């Protein structure tokens, strides 16, 4: 009996759980993963900096500086570049560096020249419009004056390449000057002074030319011809314009052309060939005038210039002839 109770005694098994060492845990894997991730991000950043263009880097910089503004306004980046692979950076097949900079400078220079030409054309059109208004005003002044209206047929107004040209011509029975002289007739004096008042209101420069017909000048001082007569008449007209209110400093040239440029080419003796021509110059004509003046060579002082020596002086400068050789001795 006692042996059976001993056999039925329960068996107790004790299991002791031992704590693991810290070195055998999984925390190091997390630290290693963080390190690998940081290195991958670093090398990715290096690759991006080496493969992206300056514009892309500027866009990235602007994005992180103000992302709201970039997202609202947009901008150019690698996605809309001309790269073969979208977002893949600069296309290595494209030429860059100095060649690209030269093309940019050439385009910029062409754009600047185009803008200057456009501005110059606009200024020319505006000046042409002002000259047309001046022509209309001269016509209105002539119509408004009862005395000058009857001489309207002797006044020719036209727009030329150089500006507004005002030509006052002789009529068969109504000459501008006393025959053979530069004495101004009363009606021409009134007309020129009226023109001087009108032309004094515009800033343009002027030129004056005197013309005669082809009839040879007879009388007066010896050598006095249509050249001197046309120049004297142009200067007499200049004085009347100044008396009317025109600034003398605005007149660039006064010249006499005699009969070299007839108004009626088929009839060199026609009265209309005797005329005074006033040109209100545009800006282009003024520039041509001043450029021509700059190209002229300085005058030469003929009186003090070095002259070549005369023939006598050249002979005096010749070296003396060698002495004659002695005659040979007799018997030789």
From TrEMBL:
The OmpA-like domain extends over 164-284
An example of a Gene Ontology cellular component annotation for this protein is:
plasma membrane
* Family annotation (Pfam families): MotB_plug, OmpA
Give the span(s) annotated as Disordered: 76-107, 290-332
The protein's name is Flagellar motor protein MotB
Q: PROSITE patterns attached here?
A: OMPA_2
Which residue ranges does UniProt annotate as crossing the membrane?
Answer: 30-49
The species is Aquariibacter lacus
Q: How does it sit in the membrane?
A: Single-pass membrane protein
Q: Which family does it belong to?
A: Belongs to the MotB family.
Which gene is transcribed and translated to give this protein?
motB
């Amino acid at each position: 009996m006692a042996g059976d109770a001993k056999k039925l005694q329960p068996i107790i098994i004790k299991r002791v759980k031992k704590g693991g060492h810290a070195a055998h845990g999984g925390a190091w894997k997390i630290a290693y993963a963080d390190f690998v991730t940081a290195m991958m991000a670093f090398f990715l950043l290096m690759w991006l900096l080496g493969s992206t263009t300056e514009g892309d880097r500027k866009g990235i910089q602007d994005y992180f500086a103000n992302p709201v503004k970039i997202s609202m306004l947009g901008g150019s980046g690698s996605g809309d570049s001309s790269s073969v692979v979208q977002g893949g950076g600069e296309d290595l097949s494209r030429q860059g560096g100095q060649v690209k900079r030269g093309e940019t400078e050439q385009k910029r220079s062409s754009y600047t020249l185009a803008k200057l030409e456009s501005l110059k054309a606009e200024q020319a059109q505006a000046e042409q419009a002002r000259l047309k208004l001046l022509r209309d005003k001269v016509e209105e002044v002539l119509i408004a004056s009862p005395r000058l209206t009857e001489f309207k047929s002797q006044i020719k107004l036209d727009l030329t390449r150089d500006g507004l040209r005002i030509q006052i011509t002789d009529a068969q029975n109504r000459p501008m000057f006393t025959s053979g002289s530069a004495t101004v007739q009363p009606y021409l004096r009134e007309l020129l002074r009226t023109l001087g008042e009108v032309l004094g209101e515009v800033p343009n420069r002027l030129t004056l030319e005197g013309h005669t017909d082809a009839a040879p000048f007879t009388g007066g001082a010896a050598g006095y011809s249509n050249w001197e007569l046309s120049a004297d008449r142009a200067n007499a007209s200049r004085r009347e314009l100044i008396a009317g209110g025109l600034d003398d400093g605005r007149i660039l040239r006064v010249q006499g052309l005699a009969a070299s440029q007839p108004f009626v080419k088929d009839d060199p003796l026609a009265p209309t060939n005797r005329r005074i021509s006033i040109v209100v110059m545009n800006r282009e004509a003024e520039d041509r005038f001043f450029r021509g003046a700059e190209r002229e060579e300085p005058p030469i002082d003929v009186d003090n210039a070095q002259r070549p020596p005369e023939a006598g002086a050249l002979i005096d400068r010749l070296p003396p002839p060698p002495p004659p050789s002695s005659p040979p001795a007799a018997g030789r």
